Amino acid sequence: MPSITINISLYGDIAKHAGGHHVAQTEIMLDGDPTIGDLQDKLGISAEEKGYVFKNAILCDVPGFDAAREESLCEGDHVGIFSIQHMWPYQYRDGVRMSDALARALNEKGAMHNIYKATEE
Amino acid sequence: MTRKIVRINMSNQKATYEDVPKKWAKWGGRGMTSAIVFEEIPPTCHPLGPNNKVVIAPGWVTGTPAAPSSGRTSFGGKSPLTGTIKESNAGGLSGQKIAKLGLAAIILEGTPAKDQWYYLVITKDGVEFKDASDLMGKGMYEIDEILWKDYPKTAVIGIGQAGEMKLSNAGISVNDPENKPGRYAGRGGLGAVLGARGIKAIVIDDAGGPGVDIANKELFEKGRKNLTEAIQEHALTKKDGGLNAYGTDVLMNIVNEAGGLPTRNFSAGQFEGAAKISGEAIAEVVEKRDGKGMTGHGCHPGCIIQCSNIYPDESGEALVSCLEYETAWALGANCGIDNLDIIARMTRECNDLGLDTIEAGNSIAIAMEGGLLEFGDAEGALKLFNEIRNKTPMGRILGQGVEATAKAFGVHRVPTVKGQSMPAYEPRAIKGIGVTYATSTMGADHTSGYTIAPEIAGVSGKLDPLTDEGKADLSLAFQASTAFIDSSGYCLFIAFPILDIQTGFEGMVDTVAGVMGIDLTGDDAIALGKEVLKMERLFNERAGFTKEDDRLPEFMRYEKLPPHDVVWSMTDEELDKVFAWVHED
């Protein structure tokens, strides 16, 4: 099974999963027909630490949801993943392009709210 | 103790104290400034002429003991940049000290004799008019230092050289707890209106002042506790949360990933150097230089969010505070500049000269498009501030803002609404903000439409983000809720915990109700906000603005924005719904 190269940017605490401190920008090889879920697993990013997720400037996931795991990846795709602490006020994301899976998830589950429980709880 | 208004007439250098009239008794902050502007300023007056005024008002809860993150000061008047009503608010030291003097508002009116400049000293004993000759021609860093020698630990409100020149992009500076100028009522050119009053600076000394009355202390304390807990618990506003760790520039990478970061004068939606000028990059510089730089800095006493920063120079010494998202974007991505050190130096120039960083960066981007410099020419951009400092014709053009600069350089891609340039969210890619840009009473403004109420946010999962349906109603709700927060004296960033935590929302409302001694529920917040918007909208109508002014610039309808290759598609009819109610109620 041939592998493909994905360009990734990790922002915030999760940058540590790709050798960064606050930001990590690099490329990663994935085998087969990978998804964003496969990418997260390979990097070791848990659902709890993941915030917003983008693929090629399309919003695929938001904090508290898990809507991007099945999103397929192709050679040369760019994926940006943010830590859970990143904010993005609703009024500054109202109308952005989002994936079909995320749109379905928002319609089913309702509004996204930032998780506000203390991390140690 | 009854709240007072001090009316300061610069024509005869007299100050008179008045009880707050019943018609204005319910207002604070933006509600107060807009009510006074609406009633006292002729809408068709020239913004720099004798009939305009500057109104300064602390919010409802500003100056109360331990109300968290509530130190905002509102400045109002008719804007020389837009010709509309303007409210611009700032953090820093001024709001709490004005409130603690028992003042609900300061009204600055009249014009002194030609070439007469004053600084005012406002204390519990009254207003002193001081000759400002020794302060003229000086920037705000020096002004703040000079005035603290004679008036230590006071609030200093002032204008830099831009305000002296009455440039349309002149802001009003407020000093921060370290006595640095960086807290700006930046947008709309109110610094020029203060200059037209012959006022270089205002010192506020609250020593011995009566403080702020709290009508229902039990209700206030209950609300204060709930709101404080919500801020301290929420992921974005708690210590080491997103705002505290990375500041507002935490948005740079997110908006860039979304394809909505205006780049090189709004010609693209992504900037290849975004990560280098982001909040994450600022945090790395602060850690690496290990000096006097810091994140998690508070812009006023009592702020528990602390989203400000102090950016260090190469030797670790403090260079500038604060490097905000809008600032890093305007002077960075929109000019094609990815050098954070140069952006910080340009920010310091803006803070010293007294310029709004958004309008300044956008004006440079326009000049770059017009051929004055290449996009990305960081050193060249930094040198342009000398043009303003030296009062050259070029400096005066740039200091008049984007529209004047575009005319001077023959540029047609002009990202303005009602004369004010757009902030850091591209409306072709982020359509919701475009509705607010188009219809705001203030011109294109990113702080005009925050969401605070859970029932408003609840629509976010129901609306189809790819259609335009419902965005007008949403924008109105956002604009009304923002007008309420702007009246409270709270920082807009309490929006996050009060949105997500119901007790936080109730706490915010209870603190306002407790101070004012009024019955207030969450539903009342939108109604009060709409009252403010109505006054502002009617002022603008009487100044000559119509619904035809509620439009985004033409180029956004036909120029596709990469990477999504989208144009602005919202119909005029949808935009006109936002304020259709003004003449119906």
Description of the molecule:
The complex is a heterodimer of chains A (121) and B (585). With 121 residues, chain A is of the alpha+beta class. Helices cover 15% and strands 28% of the residues of chain A. Chain A is built from two helices and five strands, in the order E-E-H-E-E-E-H. Chain A has helices at residues 36-43, 100-109; strands spanning 3-11, 23-31, 50-55, 58-61, 78-83. Chain A has a five-stranded mixed sheet with strand order 2-1-5-3-4. Residues 117-121 of chain A have low confidence and may be disordered. With 585 residues, chain B is an alpha+beta fold. Chain B has 23 helices and 17 strands. In chain B, strand 14 (308-312) and strand 15 (318-320) form a beta hairpin. In chain B, helix 16 packs across helix 18 (471-488). The longest helix of chain B is centred in the last third of the chain and has 21 residues, at 522-542. The two termini of chain B are 35 Å apart. The interface between A and B is large, with 43 and 64 residues.
Spatial ordering of strands, largest sheet of chain B: 2-1-6-3-4-5
The CATH topology of the largest domain in chain B is: Aldehyde Ferredoxin Oxidoreductase,  A, domain 1
Q: What is the CATH architecture annotation of the largest domain in chain B?
A: 4-Layer Sandwich
Overall form of chain A: globular
Count of DSSP strands of chain B:
17
The helicity of chain A comes to 10-25%
- Helix count, DSSP H or I runs of 4 or more residues of chain A: 2
* Oligomerization state: heterodimer
Radius of gyration of chain B, taken over Cα atoms and rounded to an integer in Å? 22 Å
How does the overall form of chain B come out from the CA principal axes?
A: globular
**Total helix count of chain B?**
23
What is the CATH third-level topology name of chain A? Answer: Ubiquitin-like (UB roll)
How are the strands of the largest sheet of chain A arranged?
Answer: 2-1-5-3-4
Q: Which chain pair shows the most residues in contact? A: A-B, 43 and 64 residues
Order of SSEs of chain A, N→C?
EEHEEEH
Share of β-strand residues of chain A = 25-35%
* Fraction of residues in β-strands of chain B: 5-15%
**Radius of gyration of chain A in whole Å, from Cα?**
14 Å
Helix/strand-derived class of chain A?
A: alpha+beta
